[in-house]
Amino acid sequence: MPNDHHFRSNRKQSRKEKKEKMQKAAAATAQKLHLVLDSSSSKSGNFVCVVEDFYNLWPHLLREIITDVNISSAKSITSINVREPKNAVVVKASHNDKKEPQYRGLWGKKYVGEILQQWGRSCGQINFASGESSFQCKIKGQNLTIDYSNRVFGIVDLDHHRIGSEGRISKNSPRKIRTDPWDTESMLFRLNPSKLLFKLGIQESALPAIVICAKRLAGVLRLLKNENIAANFLNPRGIDDCKTLFSFLNWNPISNEIEIDSDGLFEYFLKNSTKPKEIRCINDDFVKRLKSTNMPDVFHGHVISAMLLYAREKHVNANFDFSHYRDNDFYKFQKLFEKALRLVSKEFADSEMGTDIVKWFIDRDISSE
Length: 369
Prior knowledge:
By secondary structure, the chain is α/β, with parallel strands linked by helices. It has 14 helices and 9 strands. Helix 5 (193-200) crosses helix 12 (327-341) and helix 6 packs antiparallel against helix 11 (301-314).
């Protein structure tokens, strides 16, 4: 028992230390952003948008809404140049491990939220060096003055199948804007899938098979999420996970469908999971969802990306062997997919999220809509 108490105490301490580390890094980041936005050399005015991912994509989307501001991108907070804040910037919520090793491992949605919290707390403590705390911009053709506190905002993935009653923006974090269900990739894919398929070199006749398979897998992922069971290969982030998932798929060139070996997939999952007892309890539902025609109307970004990769090769050649694929091939496809998503920038501006961003700039509160 003493040893067990010591283990639990260390675990709690570790969580506490991690939280303190994140708060400290976020506070330092907020101070850096103050230096950027209150620089006397930044006469034209700018803003900082902190994102958890797709820092090269979001400038293209935001330019369709904020039409008279140059928007650049930064791959980490470390790379923002305080001395030359010429443009507005979309920055990934992360740090360069080599230059700022003390902040190693900090990234993602929680870190975006913490940065915004620290920014909000520190806004009232700033003595402006340049005397210019707000800036002028044009939002969808409308001239607006953006107050200083709202010159930093964030965009994160919802990672849920519906926004719910809370709305686009949480009342607890009034500068954190959340994507449509589920995430950035799935939201943008819905806007104009035909345009994306063309850019990726995928025949449009493959679209129904891609959508059905992606939705069936999304149904299983929702089931596992409800049961607190992880399944990385069903939500593939790398080529190894993709190869595992693809081994249970078969493109039927006659019916033009993606067939799922649901029983084989379940057995593999059962064999490799750390929760076999819990998984056996959902056997019927797991298999049923992979065969169902009553699918959830939701995608997962990593799943739809994987299905597009699968279709790109298998729709042309049903016998294509993915064992030839390497990490570099997968990386190249991901970059191509991200470039393809830029093509729906105009559609994004008129989408629900695009409209809500405009409302946020104008009204500052869309939490109840």
